[in-house]
Specification:
The chain has a single domain, classed as LmbE-like (Rossmann fold). It is globular, with a radius of gyration of 17 Å. It has 234 residues and is α/β, with parallel strands linked by helices. The protein starts with 7 loop residues before the first strand and ends with a strand.
């Protein structure tokens, strides 16, 4: 018997962000029949230090790579907002666009990046685009998407308010949910390898190491981590 599933929306700054953080989990949800939409906020134009590379060529290549990676996981709906890569800010303009998208897709669950994460361990400074994307997304989820008087121009466009029930933060500063992806780790790596302009074969070793460390916390081979905010009345 066919079971109708509510949509899930995943918002990220760059092509490949989603695959690193949540590919195994998303593959599982897609296999269960959840309709999933990706929103990539930036155009990917800062994704190369190669002298003389044409921005338009890189943008197209990264979009093609993202669509291919999504397809590996069973995701067909991939949208690009086209903000300039590397200098993203959590503006009202961006929040409005994300609010419009949430009201259009009407997801029960939204995944986005954790805007509170600045340092990851002792070797990585979180990209400012990640934090800007996360900040704009969480405030689009609440209060903007569900509040009628905010962005009244969206009402005039036909976008009625929508309440998101669950917010998952990817690469969270304080994780509280570990999800087993042991049977989907190879699918995750396959999706990451679609991003050929950004990643080489050694990404497989990195991902196995990181996700094995997460898996050890719950007694499984590989896991992905999130922080979950439940936006429903008790």
């Amino acid at each position: 018997m066919h079971v109708s599933r509510e949509p899930i929306l995943v918002i990220a700054a760059h092509a490949d962000d989603i695959e690193f953080a949540a590919a195994g989990t998303i593959a599982g949800w897609a296999a269960e029949g959840y309709p999933i939409t990706y929103c990539i906020i930036t155009d990917g134009s800062a994704g190369s230090n190669e002298p003389g590379i044409l921005s338009a060529d890189l943008i197209k290549r990264r979009q093609d790579e993202q669509r291919a990676a999504a397809h590996v996981l069973g995701v067909q709906d991939v949208r690009f907002l086209g903000y300039r890569d590397g200098i993203l800010q959590p503006t009202l303009e961006l929040r409005r666009e994300l609010t419009r998208l949430i009201r259009a897709v009407r997801p029960f669950r939204v995944l986005c990046q954790d805007p509170t994460l600045v340092f990851a361990g002792s070797t990585y400074i979180n990209h400012p685009d990640h934090r800007a994307a996360g900040e704009a997304a969480i405030y689009a989820v609440f209060p903007s998407a569900e509040t009628r008087p905010i962005f009244p121009e969206l009402l005039a466009e036909g976008y009625e308010p929508h309440k998101v029930r669950e917010l998952y933060l990817m690469f969270p500063a304080a994780p509280d949910l570990y999800l087993d992806i042991s049977d989907r780790i190879e699918q995750k790596i396959e999706s990451l390898l679609c991003h050929r302009s950004q990643l080489g074969p050694d990404v497989a070793d990195w991902v196995r190491k990181w996700d094995a460390e997460n898996g050890a916390r719950i007694g499984v081979a590989y896991a992905e981590v999130f922080r979950v905010i439940r936006l429903v009345d008790n």
